[in-house]
Design a protein that fits this description.
Elements (H helix, E strand, L loop, with lengths): L1 E2 L7 H6 L2 E4 L6 E2 L2 E2 L3 H10 L3 E6 L6 H10 L10 E3 H12 L5 E5 L2 H9 L28 E6 L7 H11 L5 E4 L5 E3 L5 E3 L1 H13 L4 E2 L5 H10 L7 E5 L2 H11 L2 E5 L6 H7 L11 E3 L9
Parallel strand pairs: 1-15, 2-5, 2-13, 5-6, 7-8, 8-9, 9-12, 13-14, 14-15
Antiparallel strand pairs: 3-4, 10-11
């Protein structure tokens, strides 16, 4: 494991890699602010002719929403084809891997619904759906027989009634159970760390149904399979750059990529250096750096 502190220390990585996969939150931006050095680092890699992709577990935004965010924050020369969200990868999985033809029961937000509908599926209504406590209410919950999959994403209106509906749908073993991602924690503005909503919701449904979701996002392989199906690349000459050991670094290890941990998000320098010797091999990055500033620092 090598620390990258300046541009000269990046040379080994630059010479051995052609494809760069970046996480977004905590690596290239924090909430609505670019992180120091991120724009410059990506411009530098573009000038060197590297393939660049952005691979985020965030599912509340559609792919095009995330693409527009790059432009709004000052990132240039990035095409929508360079942007991969777990929402897009999930819809891709439903269409191209499962080859579903029926409806989808979604616990999620508008961005996730957009991706599912763009893939050609009918998505049941999202938004508030709560219990009133009236007698017989649960017994009268409508279950659509055409639903072929339950998709769990971040849902700002997650409720007991939605949990009951998911439970009823998933009693049918032919109904697919898909989670977009399962991050335990995520970074937000000012360096604050909060619980990951999707992972928490998946655990609740796993517990009640006795089933285990097929998770699409990092650290699971359906995400990289989605990217490779559209833009094939040599994994041994690719690097995953992220801030989360349990999603980004584990993803890299499982996929056969090199890995670079950036200490501007979930993982902090002090705790990482104090505890990395106790980590399993699949959570130890090949490289680490305080920030992307190191690429352009002399």
């Amino acid at each position: 494991m090598n620390e990258l502190r300046c541009s000269s220390e990046w040379q080994e990585l630059l010479h051995s890699t052609d494809t760069y996969l970046f996480d977004c939150d905590g690596v290239v931006w924090q909430s609505v602010t670019p992180l120091p050095g991120a724009i410059e680092a990506i411009c530098c890699l573009q000038k060197l002719g590297k393939q660049i992709y952005f691979v985020t577990n965030k599912n509340t935004q559609s792919r095009i929403d995330t693409f527009y965010k790059f432009s709004k924050l000052g990132f240039t020369n990035i095409a929508i084809e360079n942007v991969y969200t777990s929402s897009y990868a999930t819809a891709h999985y439903l269409k191209h891997v499962l080859k579903l033809t029926g409806k989808v029961y979604l616990m999620g937000e508008a961005g996730m619904k957009t991706e599912i509908e763009n893939a050609g599926f009918t998505c049941l209504d999202i938004g508030p759906d709560t219990m009133t406590g009236e007698p017989g209410e649960i017994e009268n919950i409508h279950i659509d027989p055409e639903v072929q999959a339950v998709v769990v994403a971040t849902d700002y209106h997650f409720s007991y009634k939605k949990l009951v509906k998911a439970f009823f749908y998933l009693k049918n073993p032919a109904c697919h159970y898909i989670g977009t991602s399962e991050d335990r924690v995520i970074p937000v503005g000012n360096g604050t760390i909060i619980p990951g909503a999707t992972g928490s919701f998946i655990q609740a449904i796993n517990y009640s149904t006795g089933r285990t979701a097929t998770v699409i996002g990092k650290p699971y392989l359906p995400f990289i399979n989605c990217i490779e199906s559209e833009f094939p690349f040599e994994r041994s000459r690719a690097v995953m750059i992220g801030d989360n050991l349990n999603s980004d670094i584990l993803f890299a290890k499982r996929a056969g990529l090199k890995s670079l941990l950036i200490l501007t998000g979930v993982t902090k320098r002090a705790e990482f250096l104090a505890g990395y010797k106790d980590l399993p091999d699949n959570l130890i990055p090949d490289f680490f750096s305080d920030s992307l500033c190191s690429l352009t620092t002399q």
